[in-house]
Structure formats: C-alpha cells, structure tokens
Amino acid sequence: MQSLTKLSPILIIKKQVKWKAKLYISALSSLVILQIIFTLLFFNHGNASEGYGRGNVNVQFFIYSLDVYVMVAMLWAFITGLLFSTKAYRRDDLAIISSQASSAIATILVVILYSMIAVMIIAASYYIQLIGLFLRQKDAFIIDQLIISPSILLVCFGSICLFGAVGLLVGYCFQGPIIVKLATILFFIVSLFVLIVYPEFINLQSFILLSNLKISICCFLLAILCFGLTIWIAHQSEVSAL
Amino acid sequence: MKVIRCEQLSKSYGHRQALQQVTCAIDGQKIVGIIGRNGAGKSTLLHIFSGHIKATNGTCQLFDQNPFNNIRTAANTILIDDQLSFSNYLSLSDILTMAADFYPNWQNDLAYRLLQYAEIDLAVKHQQLSKGHRAIFNVVYGLVARCAFTILDEPMNGMDEAIRQDFYRVILKEYIAFPRTILIASHHLQEMETILEEILLLHKGKIITHATIDELREQLISLTGPNEEIDVLCAYLPIYARKTMANLSSIIVDAYQLKLSHEELQARGITQTALSVSDVCKYLTYEEGSDIDAIFD
Q: Where does the chain cross the membrane (chain B) (predicted)?
C-alpha cells in the first residue's frame, strides 16, 4: 500500500490564502476605483457643508472627512464577501486540495487581509484628497487632525471586516443546507417586520456614542460571530448544493 | 486498510433516490470501472467518495475516515469531472504552478509533455479551451497530481477517438509508474475494458455486481438455437433478453445457472457465444420494455 499524503490543515489553508489573495486582487482594484470616483465627486464641496451669513459676510465650511470613504469601503466589503461566497468562486476551490470548511476559513482570512488593505486605501485616499485641496489653495484650509488616530483606523478596520463577514455569511446562508436557507429567509422577514412596525426598536444612537475602542471591539465580536457561523454552515454544505 | 468501504449507503434528493443501500469495498491499488446507464447513480457515488456530498443513510469510509468535508482524505483524493473549473485569472501554465504548490506528488514535467503532445497552448485560460482540449487538460491534471485515490468521472467526454485511445494508455502508464486506486466512470466500456481490473455495475442506485473483468465476462452467455429447444431452456432459466427470427431464437442467460454442458447444448442444436463485458453490463441492466424498437411498434 502506498503511503498517504499527510498535509496539515494549517498548511493547506495557508496555501489557499496565498492563492486566493493573489486571485481575488481585482476586488481591491475595484475599491481603489470606487475611492477615486468618490474623491472626485466630493472634491469641490466636501462630504458635508455648513454656512453662515450676516450682512455682506458669508462664511461657508466644506468638511472633508473619512466617513464617506469608510461607508464606501463597508459597502464594498459586503458585496465582496457576497461575491466570494458565490458558486463561481467556491467551485474553483474544488480543483485543489480543500474541504468546504478549509475554503471558508481561507476566504475569511482573505476578507480580513483585504479589510486591512482597504483601511490603508481609505487613509491613502483621504491624504491624497488633502494634498489635492492643499495644492489648490483656493480657500482657507483648516486641518483638524492631520494624523488619523489609530483608534479611528481600528473602527474602520472593524466595521469593514464586519460588513465583509456579513456579506460572506449571507452568501453562505443562501448556498448552504435547506434548513439554513429557510432560517435565513425567516430571519429577514422578521427583521423587516420589526423594522417597519417597531422602528424605534433599532436604535444605534447609544452604540455610536461609545468610545472608538468599544465600537471596534463590538464590530470585531460580531465579525467573529459571523465568521464562525460561516465556517459552521460551510462544514454542513454539500457541493451539489453550491 | 481498505481504500473504500461503504455500508448500506443511500442518498436521496427530495423524493428521488439516487443511491439505495449500496454496500461495497475496494481495496488495494487498481483501476476500477464504475459502470451504469444514465441516472444510475455513478456520479452521486463518486461525489460521496470524494467527500463533496453526504450520504443520507449508511456509512462511507475512505482510508478509514469519513470523507465528507474531511481535509485529510481530500489531501489524498482528486475528482475530475466536467464541472472542474479554475479561476478566470489563471492561464493553464498558472494552473499547473498552483497545483504543484498543493499536490506533493505533482509531476509538472509530465503535465507539460502531455499537454504539448495534445497541442494545447498553455498561455490560454481553462474557459477558452474547446470541449475536447478541456477534457484532455482535466485528465492530465487528475493523473499528474498522483493522488492515492483518483476519481475520473466521464473523463473522455468530448475527446476524439484517437486521443481517447492515447489517453487510456496514458492512464495505464501513469498507473504503472505510480500505482494508486483509480475509479473511472464511463460509458465507453468497450474502449477501456483492457485497462480495468474490476467493474462496479450500478443500476437505478443499486449495485448489480462488483466483479473482476473476467468474472463479469463469464457471467452471461448468448444461446442461439431452434425455437422449441430455446423454449425448454426458458422454462427453468431466468432470461435477460430474447430475440426471435423465423425458427431461430437467441437468448441471454446466466452462465452459472445453465446446467447443460457444451456437448449437451450442441446435441440440441444450440450454439453458445461469449459476450463482451460491455454487452454483459448492458444485459444486466436491461429491463422489460426498454427496447427502443417497441416504441415504434
């Protein structure tokens, strides 16, 4: 009897992450394009504006912040997560040594890696915008915070990661066993009902008022929960159900 | 250690039973043909072996482990079917590099030589290949990975006859170079019976027989003789098929249940003819009323 190949699951996942990160790189280029589009859209008037007028004096503030970039990246992460869970991506994993769970773990690690890179892209977009405004020098220019605080970057990373995790989980739910699909549909119906009938039930005000560190911890915990559920569903899934 | 051991394996999709109470075992390194008509359950069985789907009932053990979503058995298994797909961003050359990274026994030189022989351009993408070239690439991919358990599901679909013959030789040579358990599901039994050691015949989700090629070849025989003599035999023998032309009838019967010697048959004017393995499989899965001519009658 020939000897069997004994590869450690960690080694296989490492290799999968390496190849997936290379192959899915177009997802990152789409984020860069999105950020460029939004930078150009908001270049003249900022993300928000505020104005005062008295007599002949008119003062108008254009506020440039990270918010739009983060929101775009969150939406991008959700769609990317959803795409990574589609049949086309998951079928490709069958051509190499993989199981449904190992593929899901590798995809999760790629989502985390891409979320980190997305934070760098956001920061870069923000600074490029600042340089552009500085070079234009048309108006008075006030920089509130030149260096983005690490806690803000952590919130950005956590929220992008969370949206990527939710996208991935939703995708896996709809590609998973029938019982999971039904549970997901039921969850969406109940959520929609609660949202319409009891809108006050969804109150994020107290959450937003938390410190950056607490918000990022909440985001990470929720992302871990989503990732855990994704791996569990993947482990129950059959290829024929893809 | 048995390579595969299945007990009372069943798989259903809703109300449709794809596999029913399948019990079988394959041990050692050999080339086994998984034969059956369309919808017999061949692909379902192979997907259970590869760990892609879970049996509804019963157990399946591959290298003494449950293969479903099992990374350890996956490291020793490769399934090649027409659904095999690769990322759009990879050329064939990139695919070979990637596979070499994953499969420890990967034979890159051999892959290049075989693909060069088949005149496949390595700069193109898998999706851009013609049906025949894609089938060739897939078979090469499955063989050079040199996994202990190699599953080829209809590997020759789309290939022309000449290249099919070549690739049966490739399978055999690769098997000799690196003995392993190879399962081949195919409808081209006549073409590949020379490379098979055993056959697992499936029909309507059940195993009809699991035997060596020689045992299977001897299982059924064709008897041709006068109608009245054949009628006598029909009275006590189970008949797999019967054709009558004028005063002569031809029947297919189980060779092991025929109690008459060759001389006794000759004395009754009955001639005995051996069947090809392909014909044996056809008759073992033959059903009353499945004659296409009957539709036009």
A: none
Q: Range of B246's domain? A: 218-296
CA dihedral B197, B201, B206, B209 (to 10 degrees): -70
Give the residue from A165, A189, A179 showing the smallest Cα distance to A82: A165
Q: Do A5 and B104 touch (CB under 8 A)?
A: yes
User: pLDDT grade, residue A38 (50/70/90)?
Assistant: confident
Side chain identity, residue A73: A
A94, B76: Cβ pair inside 8 Å? Answer: no
The 10s digit of each residue's pLDDT in B33-55 is 999 999 899 999 999 999 999 99
Tell me if A3 is assigned to some domain. no
Whether the pLDDT of residue A85 is over 80: the answer is yes
- Smallest Cβ distance to B180: which of A2, A18, A88? A2
| CA atoms in the 13 A half-sphere facing the CB of A149 | 8
In whole angstroms, give the CA distance from residue B126 to residue B131. 10
B14-19 — which CB contacts under 8 Å span 24+ positions? B17/B205, B18/B44, B18/B205, B19/B44, B19/B45, B19/B48, B19/B55, B19/B205, B19/B206
Domain ranges, residue A140: 9-51+58-241
Q: Is A102 on the interface with B (CB under 8 A)?
A: yes
pLDDT digits (tens, 9 = 90+) for B68-91: 999 999 999 999 999 899 999 999
Nearest CA in chain B to A99: B69
Taking CA atoms, what residue in B is nearest to A23? B89
Residue A180 lies in a domain: yes
pLDDT (0 to 100) of residue A2? 63
Same domain for B131 and B233: no
The two tokens of residue A181 are 């699909």
* Residue in A4, A6, A238 closest to B54 by CB: A238
Is A98 contained in some domain? yes
Of B28, B52, B102, the CB nearest to A15: B102
Q: Flag whether pLDDT at B295 surpasses 50.
A: yes
Token output for B111: 């892959």
Tell me which residue in B13, B70, B179 faces A99 most closely, judged by beta carbons. B70
Does B71 touch chain A if contact means CB atoms closer than 8 Å? yes
Q: Are B145 and B75 part of one and the same domain?
A: yes
Q: Of B215, B234, B267, which marks where a domain is finished?
A: B215
ipTM of the complex: 0.86
What CATH number does the domain containing B7 carry? 3.40.50.300
How many domains is chain B partitioned into structurally?
A: 2
Residue of higher predicted confidence among B236 and A13: A13
Q: Are residues B131 and B203 both part of a single domain?
A: yes
Residue from B30, B43, B52 to probe the interface with A (highest A Cβ count within 10 Å): B52
